[in-house]
Design the sequence.
């Protein structure tokens, strides 16, 4: 699960990670109040106004309606209201949102941490994620903060420090020191850096996180260490033991069809193609999408109805796929194991009758337990449904209906 | 000699009396798997499906001589169930449960790795079947006809699809291993392929992977390094998957350039595997490859 920057920072603070202070707001007035509160608390003169959306590249992204950047600086409280007005309610387009962009419903009003002083402020990169090959967390750090880490990895891989962590004993003090020394931190910044890294790993474990990316982590001009941004992803499988974290989910950031599908217990991901599909099992669902592509179509979605496909889930799946106006055909691909094909067929027929007036051709491929009975039910229903038994038959049918 | 499970396997079910455990235990017994009992803490001393129920796995092993366990325990308790199995003398642990937290699996993996005589299959997998001998999983048994093609797959229904195509092509299955779709699993693609390469009842292998991670390239390189001893037909699901999205399986997410379907398929082809673009061609391709050999 993905959460907002302001939520991520709040969680990190609970574990003692030092962060750039900020107050979230959803109106220009609220933002001014937030700025005043922040000034009283930190003494900051300038404010950084940051769009809160679930996508990266916000600083370089642009609000389509106003031309404002997604992250801007207000040089004094008097500038806050206007700057926020140009962002809130607008559509932020970044390299990660795609051309359709994302609506900004909240801004984070944050303190200015790049103030001048004895040292030049310096940005670093720190992340913690799962190393699948080693089955343990890996902490990655780099002196090239603020940059796209994929780029750093491609051009100067020697600048990425990696520290693998034994999950049974956790991050050891020598590892935190090794990272802080490798980053070239000195004096007070070194001490704070070690504390920062240690607290960050505690948070990673405590929150059951799947990814932390702090880019940049900043050494301020007076030698403090702060998380200026925080990308926090949580392990969906662990949310059952973190009810408070589950509540941080922001459904306005998700595709409305995906939200609706998850309410029906369906695993649905919206894509841009023209052939909808409904499949049991994630692997077969991906493979079915590949079949659609190889047959000259483009998958309109990923949809796994799971191991308990029945009349209700089939109907819910149908309704969701049909809400996508790009869908020109639907392929239902069920390999019956525990799921019986005759039941799925009945579900298809019922859903078809209930919804009525389905304009797009439907190809139903049923295989496995009671496949023949399922095919017979489809045939006898008199519906305009194309049956297929083999996967290659289904592929051929797609070619035909798209032609 | 078959792989992982056979007619001599003595199978104990963890989470025996729950709804999933009950249904699939019934199916396994019907298939002919030697299910010797089950474990449900607090229900020891009773009987379920005509088999004894035990409070602890240690007791089950002592009383029944079980050497294989299958786990249907809910995600919150599944890691504990795997650790209990590993600590009770079970040699092959098959974890069906989907949704185990990654943090729990990291610890489990470390413990299993440290034991040389325990194999964990899964979690989030359909299990293992040696047709005609033992089904330790949730797959529809009738699809898997006996034969000499081994299957290794991350996915459940796609494994059934592959088996069905193999059978319809006039061939059959020696052992099918569903290794699971989670980011951390007990047995990797390479380890499962290695078992089938060393199995004298297996002539050829179907290797089915998906986007995410690097298991398939590692397996492909190993196959090449060891001299392509048996023909391998390979398929990677998710050629059309967008980056950064979790496609159902927790492990099926494209993170970098190397874990896309295209990158994996390229490496597999370079290593001498017979890579199919379409999942509809697995059976035919295997039949053709075996005719040519």
Sequence:
């Amino acid at each position: 699960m993905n959460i907002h920057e302001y939520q991520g920072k709040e969680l990190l603070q609970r574990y003692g990670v030092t962060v750039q202070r900020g107050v979230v707001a959803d109106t220009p007035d609220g933002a001014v109040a937030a700025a005043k509160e922040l000034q009283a608390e930190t003494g900051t003169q300038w404010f950084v106004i940051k769009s809160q959306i679930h996508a990266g590249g916000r600083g370089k992204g642009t609000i389509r309606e106003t031309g404002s950047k997604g992250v801007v600086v207000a040089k004094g409280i008097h500038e806050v209201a206007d700057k926020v007005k140009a962002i809130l309610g607008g559509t932020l387009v970044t390299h990660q949102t795609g051309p359709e962009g994302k609506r900004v419903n909240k801004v984070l009003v944050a303190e200015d941490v790049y103030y001048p002083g004895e040292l030049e402020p310096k940005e670093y990169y720190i992340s913690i994620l799962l190393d699948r090959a080693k089955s343990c967390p890996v902490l990655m750090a780099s002196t090239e903060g603020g940059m796209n880490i994929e780029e750093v990895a491609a051009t100067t891989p020697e600048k990425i420090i990696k520290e693998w962590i034994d999950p049974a004993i956790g991050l050891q003090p020598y590892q935190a020191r090794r990272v802080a020394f490798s980053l070239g931190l000195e004096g007070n910044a070194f001490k704070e850096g070690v504390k920062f890294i240690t607290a960050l790993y505690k948070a990673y474990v405590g929150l059951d996180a799947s990814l932390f990316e702090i880019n940049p982590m900043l050494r301020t001009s007076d030698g403090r260490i702060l998380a200026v941004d925080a990308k926090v992803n949580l392990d969906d499988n662990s949310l059952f033991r973190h009810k408070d974290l589950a509540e941080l989910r922001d459904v306005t950031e998700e595709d409305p069809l995906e939200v609706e599908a998850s309410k029906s217990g369906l695993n649905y991901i919206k894509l841009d193609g023209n052939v909808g599909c409904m499949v049991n099992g994630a692997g077969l669902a991906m493979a079915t999408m590949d079949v659609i592509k190889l047959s000259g179509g483009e998958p309109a979605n990923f949809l796994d109805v799971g191991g308990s496909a029945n009349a209700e889930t089939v109907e819910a799946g149908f309704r969701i796929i049909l809400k996508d106006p790009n869908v020109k055909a639907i392929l239902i691909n069920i390999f019956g194991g525990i799921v019986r094909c005759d039941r799925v067929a009945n579900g298809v027929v019922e859903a078809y009758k209930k919804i009525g007036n389905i304009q797009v051709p439907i190809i139903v491929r049923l295989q496995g337990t009671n496949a023949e009975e399922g095919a017979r039910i489809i045939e006898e229903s008199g519906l305009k449904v194309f049956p297929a038994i083999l996967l290659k038959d289904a592929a051929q049918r797609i070619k035909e209906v798209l032609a | 000699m078959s792989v992982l499970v056979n007619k001599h396997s003595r199978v104990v079910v963890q989470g025996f009396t729950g709804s999933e455990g009950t249904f699939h235990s019934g199916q396994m017994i019907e298939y002919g798997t030697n299910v010797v009992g089950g474990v449900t803490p607090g229900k020891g001393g009773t009987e379920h499906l005509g088999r004894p129920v035990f409070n602890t796995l240690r007791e089950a092993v002592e009383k029944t001589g079980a050497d294989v366990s299958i786990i249907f325990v809910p995600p919150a308790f599944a890691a504990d169930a795997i650790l209990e199995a590993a600590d009770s003398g079970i040699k092959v642990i098959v974890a069906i449960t989907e949704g185990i937290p990654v943090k729990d699996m990291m610890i489990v993996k470390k413990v299993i790795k440290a034991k040389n005589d325990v194999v964990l299959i899964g979690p989030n997998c359909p299990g293992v079947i040696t047709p005609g001998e033992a089904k330790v999983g949730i797959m529809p048994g009738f699809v898997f006809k006996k034969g000499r093609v081994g299957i290794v797959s991350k996915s459940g229904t796609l494994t059934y699809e592959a088996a069905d195509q193999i059978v319809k092509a006039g061939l059959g299955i020696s052992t099918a291993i569903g290794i699971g779709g989670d980011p951390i699993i007990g047995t990797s693609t390479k380890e499962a392929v290695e078992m089938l390469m060393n199995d004298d009842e297996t002539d050829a292998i179907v290797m089915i992977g998906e986007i995410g991670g690097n298991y398939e390239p590692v397996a492909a390189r190993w196959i090449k390094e060891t001299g392509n001893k048996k023909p391998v037909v390979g398929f990677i699901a998710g050629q059309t998957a967008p980056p950064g999205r979790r496609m159902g399986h927790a492990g099926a997410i494209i993170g970098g350039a190397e874990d896309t379907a295209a990158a994996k398929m390229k490496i597999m082809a370079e290593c001498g595997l017979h890579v199919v673009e379409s999942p509809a061609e697995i059976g035919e391709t295997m039949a053709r490859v075996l005719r040519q050999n």
Notes: Chain B touches chain A through 62 residues (CB under 8 Å). Chain B has a mean pLDDT of 95. The radius of gyration of chain B is 18 Å.
